[in-house]
Amino acid sequence: MGINSSKTFIINGTAIFLPEQRTIATLNKEKKFILYNTASRCLLTLIENAGQTVSHQQLYQAGWEYHGKDATPNTLYQTISEIRKNFQLVGLENIISTQPRSGWIINKSVIIVEVNEKEPPELSAQTKKATQPFWKEFTRKIFSR
Question: Which are the contacts of 42, defined by CB distance < 8 A and separation ≥ 6?
Answer without folding.
Answer: 59, 62, 63, 76, 79, 80, 83
